[in-house]
Amino acid sequence: MTPTIIVVGSLNMDLVVRAPRHPQPGETLIGSDFQTFPGGKGANQAVAAARLGARVRMIGRVGVDAFGETLLAAAQHDGVDTTFVQRDPDAPTGVALITLDAQGQNTIVVAPGANMRVSEADVERAEAIFAGADALLMPLECPLTAVMAATRLARKHGVKVILNPAPAQPLPIDLLAQLDYLVPNQPELQTLAEGETDVAKATEYVRRQGVKSVVVTQGEAGAMLVSDDHTTQVPAFHVPVVDTVAAGDAFVAAFCVALAEGKTPLEAVRWGNAAGALTVTRSGAQPSLPSRMEVVRLLEVQSGNNAPLH
Ligand code: RIB
Q1: What backbone phi and psi angles, to 5 degrees, belong to 229?
Q2: CB 34, CB 15: distance < 8 Å
């Protein structure tokens, strides 16, 4: 069965420069290889889910400018339905300024532009697409009011809600209590748990606020799945790292697609790890996102099983 996933989130043009290392405050470094890539956590998650075989519908905003045009075309090229991505005449398309160091680790500053004008009304206008959808997937580069409106509609229509709380910010209990899965990285989890640095304690803290299950992404250490009946550490795939941008987006999208297809949460975390690993081996946000066949092959190699692709 082909699952239907709704993504409410950002679209950014990524302006990327490589440098030997990240600069100190006040320091100027000479970098190399300036490139632009379609990005934005929302669009990356939408495109990743589409490449993994889901039917994807996105809600968001871009400006009436060349970046907006390019980002819409990129998402549509991968089959994402952008009917509910509006062109906003009063704000520019979002831009992300990204520095990559020699190890492929990134720092990102986002100028959100039109992304921050996604409104509750934009989401409510799209209510029809919630009926019959399997999952709602959201990062946090749009206003919280839009995220909360989408969560309400998802609950009303029986749609699973998966939140990737990136960039990190404290969240209201009203939102946390309505999530099926929260998928933070460690710094994001720490922010949600009022600074608690111990992962187990921080996870329990957010679960006490009503989140049903938490998946903490931990880079090279893999991911930890915590729900009522178990805590499971799932190891990462070891791959050469070229560029870490969008690895978290690939993880959460693959996790969401696998769950929406009826796989177990543990299998879904393995899908997330595989998609994240493939993404770091290539440059750019959307160009690095893997196909379903690549993810299936990597999972088969890991399990030493030559079963046919599915
Ligand atoms: O998660 C990676 C993304 O974060 C980049 O594509 C950038 O646009 C920022 O939104």
Answers
A1: -95, -5
A2: yes
Is the distance from CB of 122 to CB of 107 less than 8 angstroms?
A: no
Instruction: Determine phi and psi for 217, rounding to 5 degrees.
Output: -85, 135
The residue whose CA has the least distance to atom 2 of ligand 1 is 246
- Going residue by residue through the chain, which has 310 residues, state the pLDDT in tens, using 9 for 90 and above: 899 999 999 999 999 999 999 999 999 999 998 999 999 999 999 999 999 999 999 999 999 999 999 999 999 999 999 999 999 999 999 999 999 999 999 999 999 999 999 999 999 999 999 999 999 999 999 999 999 999 999 999 999 999 999 999 999 999 999 999 999 999 999 999 999 999 999 999 999 999 999 999 999 899 999 998 789 999 999 999 999 999 999 999 999 999 999 999 999 999 999 999 999 999 999 999 999 999 999 999 877 643 433 3
**Ligand 1 close to Cβ of residue 246 (< 6 A):** yes
Ligand 1 pocket member 164 (CB < 6 A): no
Which are the contacts of 131, defined by CB distance < 8 A and separation ≥ 6?
Answer: 157
Q: Is the CB of 180 under 6 A from ligand 1?
A: no
Atom of ligand 1 lying closest to residue 43 CA:
6
Does the annotation count 134 as an active-site position? no
> Which domains, from first to last, does the chain contain?
4-12+41-91+119-303 (3.40.1190.20)
- 96 pocket-lining for ligand 1 (C-beta < 6 Å): yes
Residue nearest to atom 8 of ligand 1 (CA): 40
